[in-house]
C-alpha cells in the first residue's frame, strides 16, 4: 500500500513510542511528532488505523471507509531521503462530507533491516 488504527487521533500517539508534543501551524491541525517506525511497521500501522475498505483518494492519500481517518504518504513525504515520513490524521466528521483534519501524528520512517 505504501509503495514505495483507533477511535480518535488522541490515541494515535500510543501506537508509537516517544510521541512528542503537538505543534500547530497557522490554519492547520496540531501535528504530533510520534517517533520512528520501520517501513513494514508503518504499513501494518496504516492498515490497522484505516481498517477494511480504505481507498487511495488521491496519490499518497489513503482514507478509511467511513472517512474519519487518513494516512498520507506521497511525494512530499518521500522527497528527502533523510526525512521520509508519514502522517496519521483524524477528521472531525467524514472527509466525504466536508470534514476537516483535527490532529496529525507524524512518524519518521526508516528502512527495514535486511
Q: What is the CA–CA distance across the termini?
A: 20 Å
Query: What's the alpha carbon Rg, rounded to whole Å?
Result: 13 Å
> What share of the residues does DSSP label as strand, in percent?
25-35%
Count of DSSP-assigned helices? 2
Average pLDDT reading: 81
Number of strands: 7
Order of H and E elements: EEHEEEHEE
Shape: globular
Spatial strand sequence of the major β-sheet: 1-2-7-6-5-4-3
Main β sheet profile: 7 strands, mixed
Task: Assign a percent range to the helix content.
Answer: 10-25%
Description:
This protein has a seven-stranded mixed β-sheet with strand order 1-2-7-6-5-4-3. The radius of gyration is 13 Å and the shape is globular. Helix content is 14%, strand content 33%. The protein is an alpha+beta fold and 114 residues long. The protein has one domain (9-110). Strand 4 and strand 5 form a beta hairpin.
What structural keywords apply?
alpha+beta; 114 residues; 2 helices; globular
